[in-house]
User: Which sequence fits this backbone?
């Protein structure tokens, strides 16, 4: 039985559009992440999943420990729901209400670590809570982009803390401030973890591979120096690094104690272009054929689920099944209709389904209240996304 037939049979009683989780693919991806981590624990990046059922499922597997939340409000919710008692907020917060909720809960303060990269983040916490607030756990973010020559920046623009000396200076500031405890360091090497080395032409792929090798070598030495400098000032509980695309190189660094990953569980199209791994597509959505404007064109309802990041075709969803379909250059994926072309379009009838994949892992969950969990050729259960639990964390 083909994959498309299996999905169609499992969901024959559902009206499209809807989204599914192929649970076998999700579990296989989780196992592959653990294999690649080679013994280092994986902290799950919740923004790439955005379903409590799936997060709880993967956290129950050996090799996964804790969540990396993307907002403080989300972390507080997971503490309330009992998802985990180990949460790192991956981005600094300016949410005064969430900070007040954090300060008011002994349980939350024990479970949640917030992110800082400047004294101004500490000032903001004091402004929200007053200077005499309970102790807040904080993590120092090191910028781990690559600066091969002055003025050239390759990677995500995140922290202003780049050198070991800058990290030590901020660590001293944190330790000296009443109401804060420095417990961790974090760095996200987006130029390695988020950039595929087989996604483009031969020349482009060669350049990407070269950048990643050189960047990884520079980062290993710089991060090691920064961690040593900070550990001389504070007793760190963890050093977090990586992402789905850099698990091997990040895990090889002795100073890194845990690896962040999430997209590899889902297998979106932006993670098709890596030589080091190939996740299985685990989350898909189905759109119905509603028009046949020409014999080689089938028009689907809706589908304009565009991913964040630089605009372009790489951020569009891609037709997956049946094989041999593509979007048109003129219309792409639209708000209310999405034409598809290709050999397979000739055989599609009104009412048939086309299965598509999103470019990013977690953003599809903002489009659907539920995911239908497919095991084999049946829907085992239907689970809520964050949206389905009436949660929107920005």
Assistant:
């Amino acid at each position: 039985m083909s994959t498309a037939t299996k999905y169609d049979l499992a969901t024959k009683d559902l009206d499209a559009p809807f989204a599914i989780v192929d649970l076998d693919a999700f579990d296989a991806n989780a196992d592959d992440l653990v294999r690649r981590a080679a013994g280092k624990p994986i902290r799950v990046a919740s923004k790439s999943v955005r379903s409590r059922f799936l997060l709880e499922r993967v956290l129950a597997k050996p090799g996964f420990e804790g969540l990396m939340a993307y907002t403080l409000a989300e972390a507080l919710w997971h503490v309330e729901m009992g998802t985990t008692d180990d949460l790192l907020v991956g981005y600094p917060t300016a949410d005064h209400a969430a900070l007040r909720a954090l300060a008011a809960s002994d349980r939350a303060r024990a479970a949640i670590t917030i992110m800082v990269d400047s004294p101004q983040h500490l000032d903001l916490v004091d402004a929200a809570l007053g200077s005499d607030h309970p102790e807040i756990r904080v993590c120092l973010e090191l910028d781990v982009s690559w600066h091969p020559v002055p003025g050239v920046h390759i990677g995500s623009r995140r922290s202003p803390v780049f050198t070991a000396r800058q990290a030590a200076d901020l660590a001293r500031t944190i330790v000296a401030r009443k109401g804060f405890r420095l417990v961790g360091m974090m760095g996200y090497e987006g130029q390695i973890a988020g950039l595929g080395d087989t996604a483009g032409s031969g020349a482009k792929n060669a350049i990407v591979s070269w950048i990643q090798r050189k960047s990884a070598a520079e980062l290993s030495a710089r991060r090691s120096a920064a961690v040593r400098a900070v550990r001389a000032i504070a007793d760190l509980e963890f050093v977090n690094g990586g992402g789905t695309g850099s698990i091997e190189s990040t895990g090889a660094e002795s100073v890194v104690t845990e690896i962040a990953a999430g997209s590899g569980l889902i297998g979106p199209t932006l993670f098709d272009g890596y030589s080091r791994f190939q996740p299985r597509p685990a989350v898909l959505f189905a759109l119905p054929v509603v028009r046949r404007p020409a014999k080689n064109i089938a028009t689907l309802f809706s589908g304009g689920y565009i991913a964040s990041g630089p605009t372009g075709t790489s951020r569009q969803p891609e037709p997956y099944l049946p094989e041999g379909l593509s979007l048109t250059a003129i219309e792409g994926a639209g708000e209310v209709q999405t034409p598809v072309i290709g050999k397979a379009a000739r055989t599609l009838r009104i009412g048939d389904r086309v299965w598509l994949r999103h470019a990013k892992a977690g953003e599809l969950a903002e489009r659907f209240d539920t995911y239908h969990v497919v095991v084999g050729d049946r829907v085992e259960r239907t689970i809520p996304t964050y949206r389905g639990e009436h949660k929107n964390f920005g």
